[in-house]
Amino acid sequence: SVLAELIANQGSRNILDRMDAANLYARLKVPNEKAIQGLVRMFHSAVLRRAVEEMAAARGALVAVSPHSTEPILPLLKDPEWRVRRETAEALGLTKDPRAIPALLETLKDDDGSVRDEAALSLGEIVAANPEIDSSRVINSLIEMLKHESSGIRRDEREGLALIGKPALKALVKALAADPDPEFREKVASTIGLIPSVRATFT
Hints:
elongated, mainly alpha, 73% helix, 203 residues
């Protein structure tokens, strides 16, 4: 069958065969445990080898079969290699699956700053795509992250909150009023300025 051939090609020594298998699976979108586990292994290996195109193909296929791929991807957030953790956090954001939120919240404590940044952005993407869920824990965690990260942080934490939009605005305004630390207040103010509804008010 096509699926059996696809699964076999995931283990091919030829990178083009593996990428073709991933791209085909992304089009088929048929939940299959063996195929998904093969994609997770392919994704992990490609990240370690810095094989960007192969990694993108595997990630695209995993995202295409979300939410079935969410649980199999989650263990990679604990991988010893920071690149794997970072790329996994990004992939989970692309799935838009709320079931990834608890693991991504834990990833905000990662030792590597770029992993924390990616987790923050992915949390914003997931909450923005699922406005019906209770976002208070995510919002409070991202605001707390703003407070404790160094002044040289990337925009990801702020953009994560900005993606959440209006639900984050009230908490940000409250934080701005309550905290006297000028550095933190500057971060909060710049985050508020990234929220589309706020930007539209002043343009």
